[in-house]
Amino acid sequence: LQNIIKISRSNKNKPKLFFKKKYIDLVKNKLKNQKIKKFICIHIKKTLNKNNLKEIDSWKKIIKSLQKNFLVIFLQSNDYKKSFIRDKNILFLNSKNIYTEPILSQTCSFFLASASGFCSFAIFSDVPYLLIKKPNEHKEQIKSELKLNKLKFASNKQYLIRENIHNTKKILSYVKKIK
Fold this sequence. Notes:
Layout: H1 2-11, H2 21-33, E1 39-43, H3 52-67, E2 71-74, E3 90-92, H4 100-107, E4 111-114, H5 120-123, E5 129-133, H6 139-143, E6 158-162, H7 168-178
């Protein structure tokens, strides 16, 4: 990430990941056919941590506040399907192609996730996002990458915060800044 930050500074451009238009159109047409207009995407990092069930309760609180205004589409999070109430405002994808979920992460109203590699698709786009990184993960490395809870090349309404997922009040305060 340090090299990307250096390159973006020297070019004075935000680094971006792009997809071929034909794949973007395929995803958008699929959404249109399912009458999906306003949606957010959520990614919960897969973990072997036994405390993850407690984290799921916090995610439920956060998602409940969003369901009123948005369809919630989970990306790369099928392991948590059983943990969430199945209703018309939550959707888990069973995509059989490699491009659908990354494209959704760049075309949603906003992207909310526990920080992981999958988040790169949102990071290197203009989509508003809130990434939640555990306070003690990669502590030293990330110090030089963040400024005011943003990656140094982040656009408006793009945040990466170091916070415990149980602090739903603080997380929701950032969600309000985004939506």
